[in-house]
Structure formats: structure tokens, C-alpha cells
């Protein structure tokens, strides 16, 4: 049955490859070819064969019924820092650039999917969130068409994002805490998405925000430890503080100093992760 299933997948993929026409026909064929190659890898490397490479005098293959495909557990949000969805699509078609994302959302609310949710897109790069240093393998990447400097965030674009997040959260049971920005994961390299309405996302259950009535933290409150508990990599604490401010403060983001109000906001967010 296993061989028949893989064989059927190859036939379907080959059929799809012969049907592509239109503007993106060439890149659709590349996508289908890669999917076909992945199917071949699975076919050529069954678990029974992998066991044969294990050095053990006494070994046995016994199949389990409990397994599945890659399950996304995070969503990472980006801004494209480009001028149009079309430019971003061209970037993600550039094999030399080796970058991609599962979804791109335009300023007009159009949602473009470019990688299957179950595949590993190349959107996160090097970074760390909690103990996870490979969010490419555990997250869905969403790029928002925005130049990162002066572009506003149109309601139609954010509403489309919220609908998409709702679908992904329901489908993959993604925890509310696991909706993050690229700057959270890679604070030494990224500041996206900047000027972003995280509060609106939190109102809809995607990530956390703070109430207007802020509490003064206790005297023994440790901001560095709080950032670590939230998920930040605190190896470069200045970069981490700036990333936190890009996400939650959204002013004075060039400074690595937390004001009294900043500390209150940090304390409010920290308590949501306990």
C-alpha cells in the first residue's frame, strides 16, 4: 500500500506539471518538480532501510500507526520591505536568493500562497525564540506587502491577515503566544514588521498585548529574565530590548534603554507568559 500511495502521488504530480500555463507556468513547474523529488526521497528512504543503517546487533522494524507530516506550531509575520506583491513574488522565484514565505498579503487584501503549509519555507533564517533555533521548520511565514518605512497598514490588509490567522490557528491549533514577528526571533538582524498593529491582532487572539491600566512591577522584577521567559534570546540584550520596543512600545526604538513606562509594559506582557 505504501508503494502504491507514493506511486499515485508521483503520477498526480507529473500530471499537474503538464497542465501549467499562464504567467507563472515556469515557476509552477519548478514547484511541482520539487514536490516530485520529495516524494522520491520518501520512496527511496523507507524507515526499514534507515533501520538498516543503525549499528545494533539486535534490531527490528515495527510500524507504528501514530505519525504525521510537519505540523506548524508558530506563525511569523514579516513586512516585505519591497514595493509590490509582484516584486516579492519575483524575489521568491529567485533561486539564488533562496528566500520564500508561505503567504504574501497585498495592500488590497489579496492573499497569495506560495508554499504548502506542510513544507518548510525559507523565511525565518538564523535566530532563536525560546529554545527553538529553527523556526523555518516549525512555523508558517506570512509576508505583508509594505515598504517598512512609510507605508500605512490598510484595514483591508490587516483584516485579510486576521482571517488567515484564524484559519491557521484553528487548523493547526497554534497557541495564542506563538504569533510573533521576525524582529522577535532575530533581534540582531531584523525590525519587521515595524509600526505594526499588534494590538489589533491580540484583540483577535493572535499574540498578547497589555491593558491601559499598567501595574508597577515589584522591586525584585528582573527585565532581562522577563524577556527570556517571553521567548527572546537575551545574548545581545541591547538588540533584544530594541526588538521588544519595536513590537510593544513602537517609539524610541533606536534606544536600548527601558523607561519606567516601558518596564511596566514589559511586566504586563511577562505576566501573560507565566
What does this entry look like structurally?
With 274 residues, the chain is an alpha/beta fold. The protein has three domains: 2-52; 74-191, Peptidoglycan recognition protein-like (Lysozyme-like, 3-Layer(aba) Sandwich), CATH 3.40.80.10; 223-272, no CATH class. Helix content is 41%, strand content 8%. The protein has helices at residues 2-17, 25-44, 47-52, 85-92, 155-172, 182-185, 198-203, 223-230, 237-249, 260-272; strands at residues 74-79, 103-105, 111-113, 139-144, 179-181. A five-stranded mixed sheet has the order 3-2-4-1-5, sandwiched between helices. Strand 2 and strand 3 (111-113) form a beta hairpin. Helix 1 (2-17) packs antiparallel against helix 2 (25-44) and helix 8 packs parallel to helix 10 (260-272). The termini are far apart.
SSE class: alpha/beta
Looking at the structure, the CATH topology of the largest domain is Lysozyme-like
The largest sheet is: 5 strands, mixed
Query: Any idea of the CATH class of the largest domain?
Result: Alpha Beta
**CATH arch. level architecture of the largest domain:** 3-Layer(aba) Sandwich
N- to C-terminal distance: 47 Å
What share of the residues does DSSP label as strand, in percent?
Answer: 5-15%
Per DSSP, the total helix count is 10
Question: Which residue ranges are poorly predicted, with pLDDT under 50 across at least 5 consecutive positions?
Answer: 1-12
- Looking at CATH, the homologous superfamily of the largest domain is Peptidoglycan recognition protein-like
Shape: globular
Q: How do the SSEs run, as a string of H and E?
A: HHHEHEEEHEHHHHH
Bin the helical content: 40-55%
Average per-residue pLDDT, rounded, comes to 90
State the strand order across the main sheet.
3-2-4-1-5
Structurally, how many domains make up the residues? Answer: 3
User: What Rg do the Cα atoms give?
Assistant: 22 Å
Q: Tally the beta strands.
A: 5
